[in-house]
Each structure stands twice: as structure tokens, then as C-alpha cells.
Amino acid sequence: MILEAKNISKSFKNGKKNLSVFKDLSLVINSGDLITIMGPSGAGKSTLLNILGTLDKPDSGKLLIHGKDTTLLSSNEISKVRNKYLGFVFQFHHLLPEFTAIENVLIPNQIKGQTGDLPKGRDLLAYMGLEKRFDHFPSQLSGGERLRVAVVRALMNDPKIIMADEPTGNLDKFNADKLIKLFEKINNDFNQSIVLTTHNPDVASIGNKKYNLDKSLLSLID
């Protein structure tokens, strides 16, 4: 087991009322899991992923990563855990426009105080079919290529889990299918744990554990 969410709850204030996103939600992520979380817009998928990824804290409950309760850690300690164990791929790739593809993927190494593993970055970009795009800027890449660069960036620190929030949301069907096959390949080739949120049943179908989040409840589909 890499990560365990135990009875986590989250709500937001809406005027004088509290709007409950989910309550007493529990989830376990093991090595090699490919977990999909499906639900309609506004169901709380991004909120859940932000909490699982330590980008936000639950109102109550525990989030354990390798047995350590992250809800008890300081911001600096949480950042260290996040950098060590987690990688992120967002719907909007968040590549830095002034950096090339290879420079973008080396950023996680540099955040850890390293010079950057250039051979590894080049190898991973080639693995993604981007061997001719090393020195291209994000503006020179297609939407699908930018997201593949973002996936490489997420892999650079050898994360235990990749968190992918609606990664196909801005892609056409061709590029969305290509990205989903890529996630399956990464899961198979590297035994990489992945948690992916989506509103698309076709995307959700790739999970070896499939969940639905709706009306504050997380339920296992099969």
C-alpha cells in the first residue's frame, strides 16, 4: 500500500451554509494500481485528487502516504513528501512557455536541488514519441504533445503515484485515445500507479479499479 485515505471529509462555505463535497470517504492505492474516478462536473473529483495529492487538506480524516499521516505534517514536510512520492498531470499542462520541452521536464529534478538528469529526460521523451521535439517550445507543440511532455515531467522523479486530473478534457478524440493508451503503457511497462479523474466513461474503462464519485459518495464500479 502506498496511499490510504481514511474517512476524509471536505466541505466549502457557500454564504452562511456549508456545502459538503464528500464525507467519510476512504480509498487505498497500491503499487501498480490504475485507478479511474468518474463523475459529473462539480462532483468533487478535482477536490478529491487535490487532497490525495496533498495539494489541499481534508476537514477531517487521515491521509497516509507510506504510513505517514500527512495531515499532521507542516507545509514544508508535506512538500518533501509530495516531491518524493507524487507526480501530477493536469488538464491544462502548465508547461513554462519560455522553456523547451527538455527544459520543462528537468524542472522536478531542479526543484529537488539537482542539476537535472538530461539522459533520462531525453529517454523518456523518446519513449513518448517526442524524440524530434526536445528543443521545441510549448507554443510549437500540439495539445497532445504538450500533455505528453507534462507526463514525462511527472515521471522524472520516479513518483510512486501519478495523479492525472481530467487529462483528456481539452483533447480531441484522436489525441485523447492516444494519451489514454499511453497511460496504460506506462502502467504496464513501469508498474506505475496512476489515479485518473474523468467524466468520460470510455476513459474510465481503462482502470483496473473503477470508481464513481457522485452526490458525495465514492463507489467502486467493479
Main attributes?
single chain; 222 residues; alpha/beta; Rossmann fold; six-stranded mixed sheet; four-stranded antiparallel sheet; 8 helices; 29% strand
User: Mind telling me the CATH class?
Assistant: Alpha Beta
Helix amount: 25-40%
> How does the major sheet shape up?
6 strands, mixed
CATH architecture identity: 3-Layer(aba) Sandwich
Query: If you average the pLDDT, what whole number results?
Result: 90
Short précis:
The chain is α/β, with parallel strands linked by helices.
What can you tell me about this protein's structure?
The model has no long low-confidence stretch (mean pLDDT about 90). The protein has helices spanning about 45-50, 75-85, 100-105, 105-110, 120-125, 145-155, 175-190, 200-205, and strands spanning about 5-15, 15-30, 35-40, 60-65, 70, 85-90, 160-165, 195-200, 210-215, 215-220. The protein is built from eight helices and ten strands. Helices cover about 35% and strands about 30% of the residues. With about 220 residues, the chain is of the alpha/beta class. The strands form two sheets. Strands 6-7-8-3-9-10 form a six-stranded mixed β-sheet, sandwiched between helices. The chain has a four-stranded antiparallel β-sheet with strand order 2-1-4-5, with helices on one face. The chain has one domain: P-loop containing nucleotide triphosphate hydrolases (Rossmann fold, 3-Layer(aba) Sandwich), CATH 3.40.50.300. The protein is globular, with a radius of gyration of 17 Å. α6 packs parallel to α7 (about 175-190). A hairpin with a 2-residue loop joins β4 (about 60-65) and β5 (about 70). The protein starts with a strand and ends with a strand.
